[in-house]
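Tokens for chain A. Residues wanted.
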């Protein structure tokens, strides 16, 4: 078994680490305080090829492998998790469906500008009445006169409303299957389509500089050709999208957990009490050691899930495990990082306060911790 990263993976990780240090970390506090979407930063990331990492060069991507993409997500999220989630949602949820299921025309029209970083794209699965139960979609699309007529709503959709956003791909019920369940199809809705309304950004506890919005569709019409793959394949497609997305979210959580350890270690070495640095106290050392151990384990879990994915082997179980363990590791790391900072950890001038607020959603987005446990239990045969 060889855990060595190859030259390209190391280079991508180093580029992203450097970019996070130089460009992201210095403005992370301001992004959190203002909640402004970081256009300049995202454009720079696009120019570096970071918004199209896992897509072939012929479609405007960087032609990197999936693990390289996850390494990039880890490093960017170590700089700031709002920026990390913007990159992750754009790549895993926005662009990947076009790459996996789009026809050649759709790849040229939609994937290329996304992979080149000229546009962002969103994926709208969650609805006011259909969250964890994503098959319970209520948004409906009826095919009439060569157009899909869409009515319904989506909520909590990342990247849906930025000035750079080209549109959203949504799940909609397009009929009833022979087994009586909903027939779900993924439909492409470009921004500006009449009847498609993008709501105001939510006020959030963390991930503040990422764009999250409610969407509504009222007699919204798109051409019949605006579906991904075959009619009725929507459920199968988004399960596939979520498997890979969960590995990327695990990487994002590892990046955030590592940032917690970085700050806690630095602070423990600087802060003196009882005449010595608090890092000399075993109680503090054990917290740091546990953080380091759990982060390494979470990292290995997403490496393995990414590797399985790249080998074309089944990896649903490992993706759920990596997402679940990494997000809970990040939560524990954020908690301990604040504890090691004492009262200063509660003050916004220290990054750990921001990390603590931002980490919670890692246990919710792209499937809650309960949903990950349900996936794992189902695969156990329960
Ligand atoms: C900042 C942010 C960004 C997001 N971005 C996107 C996006 O880009 N696209 C998108 O489609 N969605 C997005 N989401 C939505 C996210 O995926 C959902 O919030 C998540 O799947 C949970 O759905 P819900 O919020 O409706 O919670 P619910 O499903 O209502 O769950 C509430 C609670 O009940 C538990 N629960 C539900 N069912 C069960 C069960 N069967 N057994 C045990 N417990 C259960 C859940 O685990 C949770 O604890 C985003 C969410 C946030 C907060």
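Reply:
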């Amino acid at each position: 078994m060889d855990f060595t990263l190859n030259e390209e993976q190391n280079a991508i990780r180093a580029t992203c680490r450097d970019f996070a240090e130089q460009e992201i970390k210095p403005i992370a506090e301001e992004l959190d305080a203002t909640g402004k979407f970081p256009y300049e930063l995202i454009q720079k990331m696009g120019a570096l090829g970071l918004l199209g990492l896992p897509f072939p060069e012929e479609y405007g991507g960087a032609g990197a492998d999936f693990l390289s993409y996850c390494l990039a997500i880890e490093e960017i999220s170590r700089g700031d998790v709002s920026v990390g989630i913007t990159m992750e949602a754009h790549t895993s949820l926005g662009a990947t469906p076009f790459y996996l299921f789009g026809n050649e025309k759709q790849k040229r029209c939609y994937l290329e500008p996304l992979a080149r970083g000229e546009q962002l794209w969103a994926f709208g699965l969650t609805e006011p009445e259909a969250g964890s139960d994503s098959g319970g979609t209520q948004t409906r699309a009826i095919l009439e006169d060569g157009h899909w007529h869409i009515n319904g709503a989506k909520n909590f959709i990342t990247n849906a409303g930025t000035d750079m956003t080209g549109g959203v791909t949504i799940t909609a019920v397009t009929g009833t299957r022979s087994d009586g369940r909903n027939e779900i199809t993924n439909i492409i809705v470009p921004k500006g389509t009449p009847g498609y309304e993008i709501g105001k950004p939510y006020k959030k506890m963390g991930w503040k500089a990422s764009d999250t919005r409610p969407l509504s569709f009222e007699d919204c019409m798109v051409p019949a050709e605006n579906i991904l793959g075959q009619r009725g394949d929507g459920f199968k497609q988004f399960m596939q999208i979520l498997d890979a997305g969960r590995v990327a979210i695990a990487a994002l959580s590892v990046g955030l957990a590592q940032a917690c350890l970085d700050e806690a270690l630095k602070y423990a070495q600087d802060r003196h009490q009882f005449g010595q640095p608090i890092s000399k106290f075993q109680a503090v050392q054990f917290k740091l050691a546990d953080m380091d151990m759990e982060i390494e384990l979470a990292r290995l879990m997403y490496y393995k899930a990414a590797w399985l994915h790249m080998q074309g082997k089944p990896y649903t179980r490992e993706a759920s495990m990596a997402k679940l363990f990494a997000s809970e590791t990040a939560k524990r790391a954020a908690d301990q990082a604040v504890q090691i900072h004492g009262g200063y950890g509660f003050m916004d001038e220290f990054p750990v306060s921001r990390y603590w607020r931002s980490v919670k959603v890692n246990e919710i987005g792209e499937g809650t911790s309960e949903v990950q446990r349900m996936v794992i239990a189902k695969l156990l045969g329960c």
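The two ends are 31 Å apart (CA to CA). Residues 89, 93, 122-126, 131-132, 156-158, 207, 212, 361, 364-368, 370-371 surround flavin-adenine dinucleotide (CB under 6 Å).
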